[in-house]
Amino acid sequence: MKFSIRGLFTVATAFMLFVKPSFAQENTVNQAQLNIPHVELELTIDGELNDLIWQQALDVPMNIVNSPWNNKPSPVSTNAKIVENGDYLYIAFIAQDPNPELIQGFLGDRDTRWFDDLVGFKLDTYNNRRLNYEFFVNPHGVQHDAIFNEMTVSKDPAWDGIWQSAGKITKDGYQVEIAIPYHILNFNDNDDVKTWAIELIRVYPRDTSLRISHIELDRNNPCWLCQTPEVVGFKNAKASKNIMLTPTLVASRSETREIFTPKTDWEAENDIDAGLDLRWGINANTLLNVTLNPDFSNIETDSGQLSVNKTFSLFYDEKRQFFVENSEYFSSNFDLVYTRNIADPEYGAKLTGTEGKHTYGAFMTNDTQTNIILPGNTGSRLISLTDDSESGAIKYRYDVNEDFSVGVISTLRQTENYHNFVSGIDSKYRFNDSNSLQAQVLMADTKDSAQFTDSGKEENYNDNAFKLNFKHDSEYWEVSAEHQEIGARFRADLGFMPRADYQKSKLLVNRLMYGEPESAWQKMTFAGQWQILHNENGELLERSISSSFNIDGPMQSLFNVLLVAADKVGLRRHELNFDLPIDNTIDGNTDRFEENQAVFYASIQPTAQIFTNIELTVGDKIDYENNRLGDYVALYGSINYNVNKHLQFEFSHTFSDLDADNANVFTENLTELRVSYQFNVNSYLKFNLVYTDIDFNLDNNPNAYTAKDNNLTTQLIYAYKINPQTVFYLGYSDNSYQDDRLKSLSREQRTIYTKISYAWLP
Fold first, then answer.
1. How far apart are CA 336 and CA 328, in angstroms?
2. Largest CB tally within 10 Å, which of 180, 516, 603, 635?
3. Backbone angles phi, psi at 340, to 5 degrees
């Protein structure tokens, strides 16, 4: 692929409008440094705050609301206490409330109560403003943790550390104790006094959800991590107990049967697998993870997604601990490491670390199932190879200074007859508080197996990709200008890049307005977006323009309306008729369609127990299977109801309907019901149901193979968790299916399983 300058004018124009050539400015908010006392005492984490150590802790008042209010005084009083003893960082919060009966706090599984009342903190242990840990606790002691990546401006809530917490509701509000062992943190391990960065936060959700902090934040600087004040101390902090062994035992009994005529009896298969995970903190800077015969299954089913009339692969979140831990070390502008592509490995090893200005990561696994997304500019398809494969990635980043970072990344997937190697450079530069530029250039070397080439022979080829993105983010304006190009034969088989042979330019402008604390609304946004896509030969794939309006209101309500007008191409002739020879051109080989859609979204929390939202899409949509434009309606609604602090119901339904030529084409219904009973912070019982009901009109949809395609998955799980790695699961799941050959849903698979793992710290 030859890199063109098409679309770079968009980036350059936005750059000239908002950037003056200058070095990065210092933060406009100067925060006071905190000195953390060291005390040779320990405490019991029970939420009582009566241990002697708290009398020697540093008291920090938290009285500033920096979102949605602009550094206004807090309506409620909050104090934090901070102290450390060489093994643990201890932080307590005293959150007063004039109406404690309105406290929003419920029992739940870890990382599930992000919208409750919360107290916690963000901690940057390298003080380089690239990554920070996040630890939050609700009034009942339910833990929430994540890692935030400032380079990609993304949060990974799947990370789970082993730490202690307890909460207690009092007559004046609630209070929380937190103990963070140093061995779960990455930091420069030495005998010197250390300088970290910390922000203390309280989330106070009432009519409006207030973010209360001990510092002011400048809205003209979107890097909140850059504004976090320093804390000094931790001289005796050591990465003690830095080896953790986690043996795992998984046992299951699966039964399957043929449900079509002739129906067969159940056939059973018993399976017992033992595995071992090693987590070794070689030092506080470098972590080694090794897994042998791992259980890489998801305990809980993924959320359902509708797939009819979708031409590109669906994305699913990673939940497996080996891949989740320190996954942010492999992030880049393109999604080059999508570990859900690795389906069933037998082993894996990963090394991650930071030393001064250097950050590095590497991992390698095998895979007994080799699934590959073959990308295109109008769609993608999933293929599977019969051979075992190896998958791995290497990422290195050098932080030149606080504003400029540059990194290199390389990924691989390979078998004896196939390989895909990707390598490239990415960087980010902050010109000043409000303006930044990100760039990435990639090269891919691919050898395709004869199993899936059009010629039936092995093929070797190279291609390139790049992305350039400028962002301006200030108090009243947000501007993003992006241009990217991906070659026709570029593949990143370890990543999630389902699109190739395209060039995209995009410009997004947001105008923000703010209300006063006493206003019925707090924030309003007017937005406009333009984008255009071509293939590598300059043939138009899509162009669109959209505008939106967003406003929040009382009872934590939100309303958004989006209007989109798009000019798109349908599928190529040979993609509609497999008897035709392959022809990848666009002009004269596809039809063009005008899609006009309106999307309305609203959400509200009328009481502490109930949250509900709804989204309606109406307008035109391409019927890809039949190469025509249809009338489209999609409706999504959900309700989350906490009956009491133990019992929760989550119900959602998605309806999708497409009509064309004055008749129905298909109708989709996706229903999800999730019921959980949380006995305490350590144990729960969950019931999950996911039901998909798809009806095709064969008279108006001749390419459909059946008029009915229904699927029902149910699951019942009991879990007891001492910590994220010391767990016990006992579960049952089954799957039922129905099409034109069956009068009703018929169960075709059922499984009972148990998993036990224990995190041992020698």
1. 12
2. 180
3. -65, -15
Domain(s) of CATH 2.60.40.1190: residues in the chain: 23-233
Reported in sequence order, the residue ranges of 263-357 that DSSP labels E, i.e. its strands, are 267-283, 286-292, 347-355
Q: What is the DSSP letter of 14?
A: H
Distance, CA of 635 to CA of 305 (rounded, Å)? 13
The CB-side HSE value for 372 (13 A sphere, CA atoms) comes to: 30
- Domain 555-762 fold: Porin (2.40.160)
Handedness of CA 23, 27, 33, 34 (dihedral sign): negative
CA distances from 644 to 115, 636, 649 (A): 16, 26, 10
Q: Kindly give the pairing relationship between strand 118-124 and strand 88-96.
A: unpaired
Q: Which residues pair with 604 in a beta bridge?
A: 612
Is 12 strand, coil or helix?
Answer: helix
Q: How far apart are CA 99 and CA 102, in angstroms?
A: 6
Q: Find out whether 140 and 301 touch, Cβ atoms under 8 Å.
A: no
Q: Which residue has the higher pLDDT, 555 or 450?
A: 555
SS3 676: strand
pLDDT-derived band at 207, boundaries 50, 70, 90: very high
| Span 285-325, pLDDT tens digits | 788 999 888 765 555 555 556 567 666 666 777 777 788 77
For residue 368, with 0-12 CB atoms within 10 Å meaning exposed, 13-18 middle and 19 or more buried, which class applies?
Answer: exposed
> Helices (H) and strands (E) in the chain — how many of each?
3, 39
- The pTM assigned to this predicted structure is 0.88
What digits encode the pLDDT tens for the residues 115-135? 999 999 999 998 988 889 999
